[in-house]
Each structure stands twice: as structure tokens, then as C-alpha cells.
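Work Package 3 (structural annotation) set out to generate three-dimensional models for the target panel prioritized at the project kickoff. During this period the team completed the workflow that converts sequence records into C-alpha cells, so that structures can be stored uniformly alongside our sequence database. As a representative example, we reproduce one entry of 310 residues exactly as it appears in the project archive.
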Amino acid sequence: MRLFLGVDGGQSSTTALVGDEAGRVIGKGRGGPCNHAAASEGRANLERAVRDSVGAACAEAGLDPAGVRFEAACFGMSGGPEDKRAILSQLLTIDLLLVTTDAEIALAGATESGRGIVVIAGTGSIALGRNDSGRTARAGGWGYIFGDEASAFDIVRQAVRAIVRTEEGWGPATTLRASLLDATGAPDSGHLLHEFYSPEWPRDRIARLAPRVDGAAAAGDPVAIEILNSAAVQLATLAASVRAHLWRPYDAVSVAYSGGVFHSRRVLERFRVLVELDSANRCIPARYGPAEGALREACRAAGVRPHINE
């Protein structure tokens, strides 16, 4: 049997899909985050995440992970692929190995053709586009220090800033204070900040508090509403920047969205309205997830037309 592998290696988790010679998914597995590999601990995390996710996918497909050989595999890696290819080539037996970014595989799965724009807002954020001539452009995605605007982590960061301002007397009152203190067990914002700077609260764990901000906004908290409205504007701006680099005015463009931030109805509805202010844009959900996009790329590289299970 010809076997193919697609892996989405993200900041929060790793998802692996095994496909057969028809490009159908026959096994799926998950592992931990694997976005950094430079330090020894990061390399160990990467190796464990890949082994766990691929092992689980092989087990579901009825395959022995130790003996399986993949005709082609595509890994889309958060944090960039440059330092991961050598590690990945030693972990698995793969005839054709593709290592790219998580944004590339998200775009590969976002539309049937792999053309258009995908805006990703999960733990981090980025927009990537590819036009009919194959040219690509990106906006955002520069990490939590200098970028990741409107990501789940950034939304929580804005909420924490609002809490600090409330306690220091130079910001409006907000229910976000009680919500985040309750979620973390911290008595005040000072303790909360110390917790968030500790190893016990990595970025992906902090990002998982973003639904608290969405809940506060749904209950009418004006500070939370402003944070989410601003996030939608920033994500729409990323899409507009990519569009301007790759398409002419009035060219029809599909703008797909992906990631947990878009589970917020407020963010999604405002984002869609802003994107479709340009009548040539069509805002759509990503057709497939990033892992499916990676599997599609692996199949295409081997000359197989993928038939991803709906």
C-alpha cells in the first residue's frame, strides 16, 4: 500500500494524518506542541510530539509505526521549518519529505485549488495568500513579541492589560478581572502577571483563556467588546494587505478563515463584514484543516490526487 503523511505541527498541539494510495485519510493522531526545536528541550518536545501523533495515526490505520514507510510526507511547522528538517528525517522512514510552514499547509487546505488567502488566528496569527500565477505574500506571523496580532494569546494579553489598568485606576471597570482571576486562582493582577511569566503558564495555556474574553463580550462587557472588535479589524487588515500584494482591484478572491479565535461569533461576523466591504472578496471557512492541507500537499508531491474524507 502506498502511504502518505500530513502533519500540522503547531504551538498548541500536533496533528498527524495518514493517507492511503487514493489520498483518503485512514488514521489520525494527536500530540503535544512542537513549534521550537533549537534548544535541547525543544528538540525533545518536537520528537515526542511527532512520535506520539504519527504513532497514534498509524495505530488507528492498523499500521506498525516502527515499520511503516511513507512515500511522501508534508510537515507544516509553526515557528518555521529551517531547524526541523534534519530532525524529522531521522524520526521516520520517508521517501519524499516536504517541510514547510503551518501557514502554507493551512492555505493548501483552505480552498480546493490552494489559491486565495487564508487568515489564521489561533495561538498565533498570520495571513498568507497565493494567486493564480503561484506568487505568495504574507502579513503578520512574527511571533508573540513583535506580531501575532489578534491571536488568542494577544486577546488574553489585551485583557490582562485592561485588568491592570482597572486596578491601577487608569482604566474602566471590567468583568474580565473577576473572570480571569477565577480561571487562574490569582488574587489580583500582580499575582496573575507573575503566574503568566512562569513556566507553568506557557503561551498556549494562556491562549486557551481567550473564550473568557468572548464570554465577557457576549454578556455586554464594553472592554471585552472593544478587544474583540479590534481583533477583527486587525485580522481583516492582514487579509487586505496580502490581497494588495497579489491581486488587482476587482479581482475575485476567496478569503478563508481558520483557527480558534474565529469560534467567537463577534470576531467572525465583524471580520466577514470588513473583508466583504470589498465586493470582489468572498469570505469562507477553510475547506479543510491544516493537517488535511499537509496531507494534500504530500499526495500532490507524489502525483496522487487527494480525496480527503469530509
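The longest helix spans residues 222-246.
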